[in-house]
Amino acid sequence: MNIDNLSEILQNCGSCNYCRDTCPMYIELKSELDSPGGKLRALRAYATKMRNPPIALLQKLYCADCRRCEAICPAGVPVTEIWHDAKAQLIKTGGEMPETLQKVLAWIEKEGTPFIGFEAEERSVWAEDLDLPEESTTAIFSGCMGSFWYPDQPETIVDMLHKFNVNAGYVPKEICCGLFNYWAGDDKGFEEVVRKNYEMFKKAGVDHIVTGCGGCYGTLAEHYPHIIPDFDIKILHTVEVLVDMVRNGVLTFGELEGSYTLHDGCHLGRALGIYEPPREIINAIPGLEFVEMKNNRDKSNCCGGFLSVLDPEIAESVGRRRVAEAEELGVDGIITTCVSCYKNLSYNAKDTKLKVIQLDELILDKALSSQVEE
Ligand code: SF4
Ligand code: SF4
């Protein structure tokens, strides 16, 4: 999309502002230029008349990228695609992305991760004692959050897949999926990351990738084929691998007492439409009382995690709102299907009675071993 057809696409927005009160940035900041409609109007002004957009506009486009606006828009405006393309365009025409983000991208280029301070050689420490093949048809993509922050998480996935006779390897040279480059509008950096990962996986003979991170899953499945048109690796989230086993009776569970709700992450949910598999798995656990959040499926509110790069205070406030929704239900805990959502929700639930638990962890803990090979 370039600035000429951007103005054409922007015509579809009727400025109805239905999207405004669903937007976490507007809810937090109450400023028109932080609302989706307000930003679209400012972009339209830029695309049709103004030579120079207000400096603030590019900064405002770095929102939570949650797609809540897109899901509610009656005109089908592809809002987050517009954000991405406008950021890329504004950067090419002299706009500067926030300094923090520039540092994050420089670190990705140097160490293959957005987490400043962590180094490439630390990425595969979690797998050191697991003796996983580096060449295999199915590989785990541990992602940056799993590799550096929660190394138990990829290990849980390996254990779980092995329990179910899925032999997965791990290619330790994987780098960040590129989500931050894409979000930043850094098209050149994104393409480099995609090509590096793709070539590395092809060399290792991989034709299926399994991940437990919604952000990695969304980036690999949704955006990689735009860079590599004949992209031929099947991307799977762990819930997709496991729900089939629940459906055909291979995977059954021991009893778990307690009431839990589910947080639908933005990438797995609104971006890729995976709503029912985690619910089917949760509902197959005997004893567990499942309570839906008021805002569920495509109306789910963002956990705010993505914002922590640029504005930790807003990230925290958005996360607290989501945790408060679960508290209102009076449940014992929140189940997540994304390790990045897990990070922000567990941080914001630390002063509550809520347990935040990842679905993969729950499955590994509660799967009946008599049904599977040890
Ligand atoms: S993607 Fe989310 S944070 Fe960004 S403008 Fe839309 S609703 Fe707001
Ligand atoms: S993006 Fe859609 S919902 Fe938002 S103001 Fe425009 S038409 Fe209305």
Assembly type: single chain
CATH class type of the largest domain: Alpha Beta
Integer tally of domains: 3
Q: Extract low-pLDDT stretches.
A: 370-374
Order of helices and strands: HHHHHHHEHHEHHEHEHEHHEHEHEH
Structure description:
The protein is an alpha/beta fold. It folds into 3 domains: 3-92, no CATH class; 119-242, Rossmann fold, CATH 3.40.50; 250-371, 3-Layer(aba) Sandwich (Rossmann fold), CATH 3.40.50.11810. It contains 18 helices and 8 strands. It has helices spanning 3-10, 24-29, 36-48, 55-60, 68-72, 79-92, 99-111, 143-149, 152-163, 179-184, 187-203, 214-227, 238-247, 267-271, 276-283, 312-329, 339-348, 359-366; strands at residues 138-140, 169-170, 208-211, 234-237, 258-263, 288-290, 333-336, 355-358. The strands form 2 sheets. A 4-stranded parallel β-sheet has the order 2-1-3-4, with helices on both faces. A 4-stranded parallel β-sheet has the order 6-5-7-8, with helices on both faces. Helix 12 links the parallel strand 3 (208-211) and strand 4 (234-237). The longest helix is centred in the C-terminal third of the chain and has 18 residues, at 312-329. The radius of gyration is 21 Å and the shape is globular. The site of one iron/sulfur cluster has 15 residues, from helix 3.
